[in-house]
Amino acid sequence: MSWEKIPLMEKYRPRTLDELVGQGQAVRKIREWMESVSSGEVERALLMVGPPGTGKTSAAYAIARELRLDPIEINAGDERAAETLERVISSASASVLGDGGRMIILDEVDAYGGGYTRLSRLVGVLLRKSGIPVVMTANSAYERGLADLRNLSVMVKFTRLRWQSVHRVLKAIAEREGMKIPEGTIANIAKRCSGDLRAAINDLEVAAAVSASPREVEVLIGRRDVQKTIFDLLNNILFWGKCVDSRNMVYSIDVDIDMVLRWVEENAPRAYKKPETIFKAYQRIAQADVLLGRIVRRQNYSMMSYAQDLLTLGVCAARKETGERPGYTRLQFPGYVKAASSASKRRKEVREIVEAIAKRIHSSTEIVRKEILPLMALAAEREMGALREMSLDLNIPARDLEALLREYLPRGD
């Protein structure tokens, strides 16, 4: 794989625990946990806690690498995190040969949006029955509801890095990359990153790209705790910013590149009015989407910088090329994301109703869906008061039950 176009953050990500910077005590505790896993005693999960950019996720992958396990990363902030864990448990239970070759990485558990009781139960099942090691990360282990997960885990604390440690890493990267960047600029980045090494490496890449002086770093990057938002980025791309600034800004926002694509896709036709501008913008959005798909399928991050350039420089350049000067339009949240979230919520509601009915009549959910719900729908339609009686008997709100049964009514030709 060519490293030329891979973001420096990925290129210099630690591959082993020994490569982690400034986390010696944490690494020692991690190795103790790894010894118990290697001996076949998967009794407790590993919970790594600390500020962003201190190496928690890199450590998780390094653990999998050293234990020779296949990592399955699940972002706890995803609404489908619990469902994904349930599928892993089911596949492990169905396996004839057992499942000793996998490790679950549950990232950002403090951002989990569902019930922590369910998540804790699933982690417990994985540990007790499946024998699959579980590694979790969190910025804070003391979020409300995390007590059960803490009790299931060995907790390891990652500390915020000292600026001197960050400075040494940045200086080594600059030398290896042949960057002609002043020493004062590197020191300024290290002091301003608030101990976030990942952010500092991104800032170094930006500063090198624009040949920033130490003073310009203050203006260009600012302090790391004053982050740019997706709205700043979109304003720069679509309305009044310089295109090169939007390219640099994409490194400074705490938003996934896939979500950036959704925001740009949603708002480009709102900002641009000329058909030729919209055409050029969507052409580049589509090209970026294709590249992001290839990155996921091939795990080839050398294409990431091209996707970022298309979404920032490319879409911004569309208005420059056609001479359009957009007036400000209120930005709108991506409709695709809203629809997906709404559909996910609806599926969850339906599943809970079906499970409640199955439990009440001592049957499977499959039989409820295929046989019971169509009969209930007909009864509710033909018999006055039937819906109310079923609602009371099942302890399900009549409105929710009616909405579900409406889907099972026979449709005329």
Whole-number average pLDDT? 80
Q: What is the H/E string?
A: HHEHEHEHEHEHHHHHHHHHHHHH
CATH topology of the largest domain: Rossmann fold
Strand order of the biggest β-sheet: 2-3-4-1-5
Helical content stands at: 55-70%
- Say how many strands there are: 5
CATH architecture of the largest domain: 3-Layer(aba) Sandwich
| Strand residue content | 5-15%
CATH class category label of the largest domain: Alpha Beta
Instruction: Name the overall outline.
Output: flat
Cα-to-Cα separation, first versus last residue = 57 Å
As for the number of domains, it is 4
Number of helices: 19
Radius of gyration equals 26 Å
Give the CATH superfamily of the largest domain.
P-loop containing nucleotide triphosphate hydrolases
Residue stretches low in confidence (pLDDT < 50, at least 5 long) are 93-99, 223-227
Largest sheet: 5 strands, parallel
The class by helix and strand makeup works out as alpha/beta
